Amino acid sequence: MPQDHSNEIYDYASEIEVPNDARDKLATVVARRFNDAVRWQSQERVGGVPLRMVLRQCYDQYHGILSPTEQKIIDDIGVDAHVNLSAMKAGVVQSYLAESLIQAGQLPWTIQPTPVPDLSDSGELMVAQSVQQSVEQGFRGDLRSLVYSLKSEAARKELEHAQDIADNMMKLITDQCAEGGWNRAMFGFINNFCVYPYAVLAGPIPTRRVRMQWSGETLRPKYETFYEFKSISPWDFWWSPDSPDTQRGTGIFIRQRWTRQQLLDAAKMTSYIGENIIKVLDDANRNDFRYHWISNNPEQTDSQVLSWRDNDTTIDILIHWGYFSGRELTKYGIPGLEDDEFYNAMVTMCGRHIIQVLVEKNPTLNRRPVFTASFYTTQDRIPGESIPQRLRDVERCYETCLRYLISNAYYGSAPITEADYQRVSKYMSDEDIGRIIPGSMYFSDPELGNATPAFKYYSLPNNMAAFQNALIYFMDLADRVTNIPAALHGTAQGSGANRTFRGAAMLQSNAVKAIQSAVFNIDEFVYKPLGELLYNYNMVYSKDQTVKGDCKIMARGVTALLQKETDRQNSYEILQMVASAGQQLAALPNGAKIVQWALKNVFENMGVPKELLKDEGMQGQNQAGQGIPGSIPGQGGQGGQEAGQPGQGGQPDMGGQVPGGENGQAGA
Predict the structure, then answer these.
(1) In this structure, what DSSP letter does residue 642 have?
(2) Cβ neighbourhood burial of 207 (10 Å; 0-12, 13-18, 19+)
(3) 20 to 30 Å CA-CA from 5: which of 130, 242, 543, 636?
(4) DSSP string, 454-481
(5) Closest listed residue to residue 187, CA positions, set 94, 308, 56, 288
(6) CA-CA distance, 510 to 504, in Å (whole number)?
């Protein structure tokens, strides 16, 4: 069906009005970059359609809002029936992702040491000491086998200690995500991921805010720095034309809306430029001040300006992560910058004023905490394709067939009657003329020389079966173009074994595989870099030394959740095999140890704390070796205190690098 977009152009770029008379040079640079990003978003095409128009189409399809072209079709057919395939398909995927990623109660990461760790220097020293002691005591065996055995034992102990460190880090990250609103952010991200060409997740963003904390016997407000996670609406996100993703390119932009109270709270922090915030508040008292100077967001209705002083009105805040030269940033009080070097900075702008400038100098943390993913991704582009985009033409064809079916059913619901008015009118009342009432008798005068009846009845052709087949065809086509089959809805397909419980479970499993590629996009472009950034923050700033060590830690995504379930199932199968072996297993030299290992493996996968699974012998060894990896049994833990321990020294202050921090940042 050809589409005419001439009446559907939604040009929101014209509504964006960044003041040109910025009072400082950095504000002018940010305003110019933002204008370029706005123009690019109105020009960049996705599937031949301007991106901003695609956003509007996806929003309208998901919420059942008809375009002018669709409304004209409805007017021509005379039936306004609507079945929202986009909401149906997006809804089932949202439910699946929410259940898998949020309601499962687990984070999409597993932190593990490297599978084959290198032996630490202290571990090698202890192995050498053990070999020397054995030789002095008269060891006459294979010296190479002894060294290999001692090194294997030391590496195993270091790996166990590294796993404890990884577990401690995971507990810390879990607590940080709970405090930072991870679940709330993920609900918004999943919804946008299924509806729009891209979804945006911001975090971890170090934030300083007043929170209520229990102190002694009183609940008191206290400033606290924590890592915050947010879902950013696609309507509030822009990027420079040279940005293939959020990390590369000149910069990205996010629009937020703050109340007067939020501005006043920010003015109290030295990380914000207090005098510029006061200027913004003064400007807001003018009658011609524009509170919403950036484009409209249909998901967030613009609040009506009633009383700015009563805190019931919001103002647009523009946050820009981008590259700036040291010459541009030096005037904002950030030391140690070279004029000719470029730095990845976060600049916050309100109206005509810059109210915050932050620069992260640590190379491990020098990453923009904003990540995007698409349901159907594209190479080196932020926008991909969404479910409503894939469904747009199929949904319009489906609804057109549905309306014609209803129209045909309406015309076929009763016969069309032809009557000789002159012969029947005098026997009918004015109310009866034009109506045929079942069970009624109508009189008519005879027509001389003609036996034609006074009433003739006509039945229109019934094409409902053909329209029903067309509806089934387009519904099946919707399954195919989206890779979201009907089995994911719980709809039985086929016959015979497919309708049994096991067959239905197999169909459901195959249906889930169809969206695994989309889940992989979240893994690769959101969870992996976000988890690495949060891990690096903890390695640099956390005061808990039990989460730090020499082990290398890997961040994994949603596949880790599936791997955990696989490991749990494997442990159950091993236990069943051990139980069925019975006497044959007991006859083996290490049969008792195998049974103990199988039970321990099952209990660990069930979440039983590891300290409860340690036997007395192991505890004795840990005490002898002071619980330090690399200690060799019988050596009393000599030198083991160095193995796998984090380096000492002062920890860097979070202020100066943390948005909302209090030290070393751009201030008034």
Answers:
(1) G
(2) middle
(3) 242
(4) SEEEE-----HHHHHHHHHHHHHHHHHH
(5) 94
(6) 10
**Cβ of 94: how many Cβ atoms within 10 Å?**
19
pLDDT tens per residue across span 281-335: 888 888 777 788 787 788 876 555 556 666 667 889 999 999 999 888 888 878 8
Classify the C-alpha dihedral 467-472-475-481 as positive or negative. Answer: negative
| Length of the chain (residues) | 668
Whole-model pTM? 0.74
**Contact (Cβ atoms closer than 8 angstroms) between residue 169 and residue 111:** yes
**Do 192 and 237 touch, CB atoms closer than 8 A?**
no
Query: Cα separations (Å) of 433 from 156, 385, 418, 430, 460?
Result: 97, 57, 12, 5, 22
Q: What DSSP line would sit under 32-98, residue for residue?
A: HHHHHHHHHHHH-EETTEEHHHHHHHHHHHHHTPPPHHHHHHHHHHT------HHHHHHHHHHHHHH
- 370-373/314-325 β-pairing: unpaired
Among residues 130, 173, 109, 95, the alpha carbon closest in space to that of 625 is found at: 130
- Cα–Cα distance measured from residue 164 to residue 113, given in angstroms and rounded to the nearest whole number: 9
Please tell me whether the peptide bond between 204 and the residue prior to it is cis, using omega within 30 degrees of 0.
yes
Both tokens of residue 379? 């190479």
**Alpha-carbon distance 384 to 374, whole Å?**
5
User: Position of tokens 């809805």?
Assistant: 489
DSSP conformational letter for 288: T
Q: Assess contact for 16 and 294: CB atoms under 8 A.
A: yes
> For residues 402 and 85, is the Cβ–Cβ distance under 8 A?
no
Cβ atoms of 160 and 629 closer than 8 Å = yes
Closest by CA to 54, choosing from 517, 387, 484, 525, is 387
Structure tokens at 561: 């959740």
CA distance 59 to 191: 11
Q: How confident is the model at residue 558 (pLDDT cuts 50, 70, 90)?
A: low
Backbone CA torsion sign across 658, 661, 665, 668:
positive
Q: Which residue has the tokens 């956390």?
A: 542
Residue pLDDT, tens place only, 396-448 = 999 999 999 999 998 888 777 888 877 887 777 777 777 767 767 777 777 76
Beta bridge partners of 358: 346
Q: At what angle do helices 25-43 and 51-63 cross, to 10 degrees?
A: 70
